[in-house]
Amino acid sequence: MTARFNAIGLVVSDMAASVTFYRRLGFPFPEGAEEQPHAEAELPGGIRLLLDTEETVRSFHAGWQPPAGGTRSSLALLCDSSEEVDALHEELTGAGCHGELKPWDAFWGQRYAVLNDPDGNGVDLFAPLRPE
User: Fold this and answer.
1) Residue 72: what pLDDT?
2) Percent of the chain beyond pLDDT 70?
3) DSSP-derived secondary structure for the chain
């Protein structure tokens, strides 16, 4: 028996805001997901992004509290180009999302930017830099 990676789960305080944020990044949440206590978007390759409200988590873990002092996880999204990194960052920050780090050419050879989702989880946008 071998366990297989299947999903990433995030606890959210505002399902509608989180679904809207991730839809802007191309995650295919079904219609009505923003009104549910649990939502799933299936990604290419069968991996799923799972969102659960704080109330849902407390329904089976009564003492659960959000982490204090920052986040310990992030999602990293591969973009097709440096221009796409810049455009997505601009689109999302223009829609009111928090931009943690503006796009820059990282020393490890990628165009990189960091956003925060509505709950402060990091969302990294990156693309390989093209040789000049």
Assistant:
1) 67
2) 96
3) ------EEEEEES-HHHHHHHHHHTT--PPTTGGGSSEEEEEPGGG-EEEEEEHHHHHHH-TT----SSS-S-EEEEE-SSHHHHHHHHHHHHHTT-EEEEEEEE-TTSEEEEEEE-TTS-EEEEEEEPPP-
